[in-house]
Every structure is written in C-alpha cells, then in structure tokens.
C-alpha cells in the first residue's frame, strides 16, 4: 500500500521496476544525440536570458535528473527553453543589471519561486488553471515571443550593444547602433544563420539523396548547430578574430554545477512573484502540450498534476545548482523522442553527458563567437513564428481573433508579461461577455417528430397561446437580468398568450441571482395572466430547485420534455394534428 | 427627427410635454414630504462621509435637478446615500485628513471622476457591466457596509474621537476610547436612537390605533428624524449642553450651493480612479435596483443606459456645486414614490425646498448634536443588515455562499473596496471554475418517447455499440481538455463500441480551442475504429463549424436530433423494439 503511494508520487519506482537492457540501450543512444544538441542550445539560451553561458549547462543537469524521478512523461526533456529564457530576462532585467551578481542571484530566486508555485499547483491539483490560457492566446504569445527573441539576438549578429524589452525598443535601439556594426562579426553571424537555415530546410533531403538512411540523415541534421559551433570557433581561434572585435564566449568555469543559495529576501520575492507565476503557467502549458503530444503517439497517459510536481522539482533543482527557470522544451523533447528514448532514464543519461561537458569541454568554447549562438537561437525561434492563427481565428470566431491579435500586439509592444496577461484576461472577458447576453431562440415543433427547433431557422409548428423560449446558456448572475428584459419585451402585447415555457435543455446551472430573476418573472407573468412552465430541466438543476420554494410558487408545471409540455398545454393540437388541415396552428 | 433624438437623450422633453395640474399637485406634495425627511439625512450622511454638514445639502440640490432632466425613473430621488458616503470616506480618507480643504476637494474630484465614468458607461452602453455584481454579493456587501457604518457612528454616540476603516479597527479604537465617553452625549445618543427605533417599529401602529389615516400616519412616521432633530437641538440650546462637551453641528454657512472646481491633478485622479469605478458601479446597481422596483409597480420601463447618463450628470453636478458622490437612494426614493411623485419634477421641487433650507434654515441646526445625526444613520443602516442571504445561499448553492461569505468577511475585515472587489472576482472565478469542469451525462432513450436522458437518473434504453455523451456546457478553452480527458477515459476498454455521439443540445458555443480538441478527439477515435457523430447542434454553432474543415474530416454525421442519430446508428433497434423482448438491448 505504502509502495503504491510511493509509485504514484515518485513514478521512477513505477517504470524503474521493469527497466531492462533494451530500454537501457535505447535510452543511451537518445541521450548521446540529445547531449550533442543541447550543448550549444544551453549556452545560447543562457545568453538570451542574460546569464553567463555555464548557467545554461547547469540548468540542464539537476533539473533533468529531478524530472526523471518525479515526472510522468517518458520523452520530455527538461531544461532552458527560448520563451522562458526571454521571460527570465524580462523579469530579472527589471531588478538588476545584466552580468552582475545580483542578476544571477535573482534568476535563482525566480527559479525557486517558480518551482514552489508549480509544486503547490501540483499538490493542490490546480493544473486546470492552465486551461484558462486558450489555444489562440498561446499561439499568439509564442509567435510574438519568437519575433522578440529573434530581434533581440540581432545585436549579437551585428556585434553591437543594443537593448530593449519590446519589439519597438529593440528595433529602434538596433537602428541607432547600426553604425557601430563589427563587420567581421556580421560576416560570421550571416554565415552561421544561413548555414543553419540550410541545415534545417535543405540538408536532410540532400543527405537522403546521397543515400544515407533516414535515421542517420536526421541525426546529422540535428547536429547542424554543433558543426556551426565547431567551424566558427575554429575560424575565430585560427584567424585571431577576437582581436578584431568579435565577441566570444570566453572563459567558462570547468566545474560540475555549483551548490547555490537563492536570495529569499521578501522585497525581491515580492517583485518576482508575478513573473514567477507567469513563467510557471506558461512553462507548464508548453511542457504539458509537448508531453501529451508525444504520449499520445505511444498511447501513454500523462498525469497533469504529477507533471506539475516534476516541473516544480526541476525548477527547485535549478535554483540550488546555479541554473534559472526551466521547463519541458519542444525541440529537445522531440529529438529525445525521435532518437528512441523509452524512459526518463534517457534524461538522466543526458544529464551525465552535460555534466561531463561542463567539466571537460568548456575550454573548447572559449573562442566560440556569440554571433554563432545568436544564429542558433534565431533559426530555432523563427520556426515558432506562425501568423496563420490570425487567419484561422478571423474566419472562425471574432472573439478568438480579438484575443490573439491583442496578445500579439501587446506582447510585441509592451513585453511578454503584459501580452500574455492581457490575452488571458481578454479571453475570459470575452467569454463572460458572450455568456452575459445569451442566444435566446423561440422554438416550435419540427413536423412529424417530437423535436423542437428555432422558428427562424426551421419550418416548425407553433400555437398562439404557447410561447416557448429556449435559452442557450446557463442562467447566472451576469445574464439573469438580460433574460428578464427579453421576456418582458417579448410578451408585451401578445394578447392570446396563456403559457410561457422555458425550454431548459441548454441551462446547465441556475444560480441564486438567476433564481431570483425567475421568481420575478413568474410573479410578473402571473400578474399578466400568463403561466410560466419549464421543460427539459436537467437533473442537477432540478435537484437544486427542489430545495427552494420556487417550484411551489411556479404558476405552471415542470415537464420532462418539451413535446410533453406543448402536447398538454395545447390539448394535443400542435402534437397530433397535421399543420395544413388546422387553421388554428401557425406554420412558421 | 432631431426632436425625437432630443427626447431620447433628454427625457424631460418627453414627460414635460404632458405635464399638467394634477401631476404638479402630486409632485409638490411629494416634494414637501421628501424635503423634510432629507434635511437631517443629508446632514447625517455628510458627517458619515467626513465632510462638513452643508456638503450633504449641496449634494442634494444640483444632482436632483440634473437627474430630473436626464434620468428615466419617475420616482428615483438622487442624493447622498449611506453606502456611497462610506465609500467616499474610505477613498478620500486615504488621501487627506478629515476636515481639511484637501479632503473636501478630493471628494469633489471623486464625484467628478465618478460622474465621468457613469457618463462614459452610458454613452458606450456598458450598463451590462453592473450585472457582474451578483445578487448575493450585493446583499453581502450591503449587510457588511451597514455594520461598518453603524459601528463607525458609535463614536458620535459616545462623544469620543475614534477612527478606523474596518470593523476590527473601529471596534478596537472605540474600546480604547471608552474611558473618555461624554455622559451627556451618551444620554442624548441613546435617547435619540431609542426614539428613532420606536418611530420605525411602533409609531405607525400607534398612530393608526389613535385613528389617523394611513397616509398621515406614514408621513408622521417618516418625519420622526425631524422630531428627534428638533427635540435634541432645543434641549442642547436650552440646557447649554454644548458647554458640557456635547459636540454640535455648529455654524453652517447660509448660502446656495457654491460653484466649486474639483482638483484635476493627475496624481490625485490616479489615486481616486479605482474607488471612483467602484463607487460608480455600486451606486449604479443600488440606483437601478430601486428604479426598476418602483417602475415595475407602475408598469413603467427604465432604460439602464439612460440611467447611467442621468446619474453621471448628477455626479458631475455634485462635483461643481460643493457636493460629493451621489446616487439614487432607496429610502428617499420609496418615500418619494409613496408620497405620490408622478414625474421627475417632484425631484426638482425637492431641490428648491432644500435650497431654501440651505439659505434660510441652517442657523437652526447650530445646536444640533452630532449624536442625533449618528442615531439617524444607525437606525437607517441597521435596516440594511440582513444575514438571511447566508442561509439562503448555503441551502441553494455553495458557490454563491462562498462568494457572499467572502464579501461579508472581507468587507468587515479589510474595508469596502477590498470586500466588493473580492466578491466580484470570486463570483466570476467560481463561475469559470464550474464551467471548466462541466457536467457530462451519458444518455439513453426514455421508452415510448423520442427523448434522451441521463442513464443514471432515468430508466432508459441504450445500445452497446453506441455511446451518447451529453455535455452540459458550452465548449471553450477552459473545458476543452476536460472533455478530451473524459472521452479517452470513457472509451478505453469498450470493445463493442462503434459510434460515439456528442449530443450538443447544451453546447451554446464551440470556440477555436474546443474545435481543436474536437479535431483531436475525432482523429484519436478514428485510430481506435470508432466514428464520432454529433446531434442537436444549434444553429449558431453549426454556422460556425461549416466555415471549417471539421465537418469534412468528421468520421461520422451530424444529426438533427438525437433520436434520429440513434435510430440510424442502431438500424432502428433502440427506437423500434420494446426493451423487454430484445436481449441485444440493455436497460439501464
């Protein structure tokens, strides 16, 4: 029993029991491939976050191991990712200068806070909160972030000191600094970017044509950035380009991840709380989307609340080992999956690989130009930029379009935090607005059936003494008054009207405010000599109404079905007589 | 045409055309009664707002006239009210010391801002925003505000200098000051309070027993506060009680409302913006509730957006004539209505009466003890305190209960602004939470009908190859994933399952996120050899789906009715054969 609990909360005890030689082999191969890909990526994302390059390596080691212990996805690779690195730069940049001790310390605090928030969300099963980020808002946010990231890296390609937190600031700062462009750096940057784009688009088909196997072509393609790193580093060293003003990575300590202590001063924590919440939620959404996509391909299941715990542990690990906020990355996870990773052990092996790199290989990147890292980032993030969501949402739903457009514009114009917050608030606001003015249809009987539909859309039978209103929304405080107003306007001047039937097939809840409105409607209609009936009230709604006096006071009845209601209220006239032979019945 | 526009936006041109002698007579009588009642009330509410007594009179003059011109309610009386006075004190008290010039100036700015917000809401037809204050939250807020107001007035009854913005602060401050109690003040205060309670509860029956008519008894009862004011003022003057430490109103300038200019400095406006929004919304909700209740009694209609314009004009009037934020008050409007007011002209006559009082009668209140005014307020607001909403909401809906409890506790503990904001946020949050995990029912055919209901609640017919799921909620971003998870869990291990039908009678919208989920569900079920169908999709939802590729990719069909869907998918087995004679059919 206790072991079962342990397996539930520490999944390693689950898959660890059946771990065998085949799985080990597959995991090892995946780990080698991912490690090679991760070395330049980790250095590059640290640069994006405004941190020293080794922070990227450190952020990939302990977090991967902790996720392997606590996470549920078998293929997710946890570490620095582009969007979270950008958000880290934005949050910490408000507090300390890039390159200072305070900056690195604040990044640790951000990781610790973010880890604590993720853990708390997992323990209290609050994973559903991430659902309030709608798909279009996420798509818009990722696209806009990709553009900001790409723009922010152009300064490394030009070799100038530009800055800015939003697209406008970045672009104007870049333009102002163009005269200072270092031409050698620019050449390296353009070559690296061009090469990497070609690797992405053209290399794989070329290799396939040359007769390589699918797998091998794939591995070589993924290793493209490593070639770029190798070639530009060698050129910089051999030609002494660092003396010509090409900025290089420089000395990186040769060390395992250090033990670090985040700064837990209350003032700093208060400043970082909102960014930490946003990073946690965005990171979780990115991670869970990747994990679920990959799990679905192998018919495995992901437990979102356990994922929160895994990601929380990974971030806390990052905080205490010189890293910064991490999450499950899309690119690295797909590589891991394609490379055949079977269990989270693949992640642990990757961590070992990166630890070896941190100890042994860092001197090799001394002459690595920052322009190459910037090129790696630009090529990676531009694949995230996709404006098709604007077209899709415009065609499908204007509310979704407004939310995505606002997210993109505000992210570009005011930064990532404002952008994503506005997207969420706007999505929720538009949903509330729609539910506050529900669609209300007057319905009639579809001939030869027992089915009722909108009189404006279908040929249906109605009766002048019975008005049936179908409310296409739950009744709650925001729309209670709307229904009242609609009904009073509708019944005024209907002389023959004797019965109003509220068809409640779409009413999933009636809250206390709406109940008070229904009481008012019942009372007001009674004064006009009209009885109020209800039909197709759902079980949970009916249970609740039974607790009140409303059903006693209701002037009419509650019918199981709309057909029953109309049959009885019209003495079978609507239900049994064909419309064409009976003048009393109006065919709409 | 132009005159019609004018009549729409300036309703006085509407009712003014048919104004006659009878209406004039009725309005005059109502005005006299309301004026008598308003004099002590206006002074008292100014005291509550922390302003000099004349501010209460001024706030009743121009606003009443402006509302008479722009408002639509025929009985609403606009002026200072208890809750808005308390909110003014809370907002302005954060900015300036009571009794200073800055305090009075900030109150003018608050009225101007509030007026501008109300006007803007009216022009942009944003009156629906007030619907997001649910009935239980309003009830809880009014109850808690009543308690705070009553507690805040106890210092005047004791004759001490206590303070505080929430119940806890007020009570502890009062207890600390008890030793300084002025006994003469206390006697006046207790007598006045006792007398006013008796007037409220016991006077009317007594007068009726003495043979007075209903109307006369009513007028005398409403004039109770005037008797209390008269008696205590006379006693204070005659016995020289001011020298014994009884605090009196003192000198009130004899003047018409002065022309004043609010302070429009940006810093102050920024500080007062949030309180102004809250005051506007709360004031509007109070006012519109009263106006609609009274209009319903005479079968008149209120136009909420025009009401916003009327209240906005009234507040701007208050800002420029030495007043402070105003709204349509419950007590005064009911008196106005009961006294027979027929048109907004009654309000204008009341304004004339109050102007005469401001010019001629203010010396008479020199010796009026503040304790009497406090007694007036206490007796008025305690009638607002009503905890029955806690019981009602507890029995009916736990979500409503949580919202009302939080509103009451936070208003009492942290003040009016936090309380009402928390109530609104919590109501919306709980609504979103509920819609994010919708009720999902598996349905079957009710025998001998074409009607489908929940298999857990009704005796229905189902078929092993067809699973029908009724989703009791619109599908949108917050619950899209929930439906996916539910369906995958449900279909796993159903070997004979061939068709899944989503019965969409309660689905009022499918947003882009949900559409993507449906596409994923369709695709996943297809891989399992199950087709996905939909039934009873509503017109507006279907219109939108037709714009996408979803219907082309759907493995199944879209049926007009659930009955049609099941009849076709089971080759009529479910629909035509009685359940008892056919073993293939499962009766649940």
UniProtKB/TrEMBL annotation, chains A, B:
Membrane topology: Multi-pass membrane protein
Record bears the keyword Membrane: yes
Alphabetical list of Pfam families matching this protein: STAS, Sulfate_transp
Keyword vocabulary terms for this entry: Membrane, Transmembrane, Transmembrane helix
Top-rank taxon, per record: Bacteria
Keyword GTP-binding attached: no
STAS domain mapped to chain residues: 456-569
NCBIfam families recorded: sulP (TIGR00815)
PANTHER family, per the entry: SULFATE TRANSPORTER
Official protein name in the record: STAS domain-containing protein
Taxonomic placement: Bacteria, Pseudomonadati, Pseudomonadota, Alphaproteobacteria, Rhodospirillales
């Amino acid at each position: 029993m206790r072991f079962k609990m342990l397996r539930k909360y520490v999944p390693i005890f689950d898959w660890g029991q059946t771990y065998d030689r085949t799985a080990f082999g597959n995991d090892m191969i995946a780990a080698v491939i991912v490690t090679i890909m991760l070395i330049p990526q980790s250095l590059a994302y640290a640069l994006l976050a405004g941190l020293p390059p080794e922070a990227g390596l450190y952020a990939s080691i302990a977090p991967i191991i902790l996720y392997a212990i606590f996470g549920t996805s078998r293929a997710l690779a946890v570490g620095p990712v582009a969007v979270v690195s950008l958000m880290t730069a934005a949050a910490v940049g408000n507090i300390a200068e890039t390159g200072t001790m305070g900056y690195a310390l604040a990044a640790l605090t951000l990781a610790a806070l973010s880890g604590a928030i993720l853990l708390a969300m997992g323990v209290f099963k609050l994973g559903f909160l991430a659902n309030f980020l709608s798909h279009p808002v996420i798509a818009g946010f990722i696209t806009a972030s990709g553009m900001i990231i790409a723009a922010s890296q152009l300064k490394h390609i030009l070799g100038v000191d530009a800055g800015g937190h939003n697209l406008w600031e970045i672009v104007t700062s870049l333009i102002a600094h163009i005269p200072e462009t270092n031409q050698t750096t620019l050449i390296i940057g353009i070559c690296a970017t061009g090469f990497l784009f070609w690797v992405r688009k053209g290399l794989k088909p070329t290799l396939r044509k040359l007769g390589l196997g699918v797998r091998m072509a794939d591995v070589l393609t993924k290793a493209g950035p490593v070639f770029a790193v190798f070639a530009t580093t060698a050129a910089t060293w051999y030609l002494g380009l660092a003396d010509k003003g090409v900025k290089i990575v420089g000395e990186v300590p040769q060390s395992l991840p250090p033990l670090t202590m985040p700064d837990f001063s209350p003032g700093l924590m208060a400043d970082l709380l909102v960014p930490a919440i946003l990073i946690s939620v965005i990171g979780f959404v990115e991670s869970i989307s990747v994990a679920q996509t990959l799990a679905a391909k192998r018919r495995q299941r992901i437990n979102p609340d356990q994922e929160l715990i895994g990601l929380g542990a990974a971030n806390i690990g990052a905080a205490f080992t010189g890293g910064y906020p991490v999450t499950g990355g899309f690119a690295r996870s797909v590589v891991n999956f394609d490379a055949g990773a079977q269990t989270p052990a693949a992640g642990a092996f990757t961590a070992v690989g990166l630890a070896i790199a941190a100890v042994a290989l860092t001197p090799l990147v001394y002459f690595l130009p920052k322009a190459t890292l910037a090129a790696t980032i630009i090529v990676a993030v531009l694949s995230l930029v996709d404006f098709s969501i604007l077209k899709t949402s415009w065609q499908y739903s204007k509310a979704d379009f407004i939310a995505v457009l606002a997210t993109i514009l505000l992210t570009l114009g005011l930064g990532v935090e404002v952008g994503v917050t506005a997207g969420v608030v706007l999505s929720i606001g538009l949903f509330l607005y729609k539910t506050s003015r529900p669609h209300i249809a007057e319905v009639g009987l579809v001939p030869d059936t027992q089915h009722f539909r909108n009189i404006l859309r279908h040929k249906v039978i109605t009766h002048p003494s019975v008005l049936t209103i179908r409310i296409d929304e739950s009744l709650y405080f925001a729309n209670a008054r709307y229904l009242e107003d609609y009904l009073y306007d509708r019944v005024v001047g209907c002389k023959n009207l004797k019965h109003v039937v509220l068809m409640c097939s779409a009413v999933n809840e009636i809250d206390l405010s709406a109940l008070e409105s229904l009481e008012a409607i019942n009372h007001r209609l009674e004064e006009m000599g009209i009885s109020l009936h209800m039909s197709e009230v759902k079980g949970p709604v009916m249970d609740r109404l039974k607790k009140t006096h409303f059903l006693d006071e209701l002037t009419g009845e509650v019918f199981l079905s709309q057909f029953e209601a109309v049959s009885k209220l019209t003495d079978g006239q609507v239900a049994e007589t064909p419309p064409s032979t009976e003048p009393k019945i109006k065919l709409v």
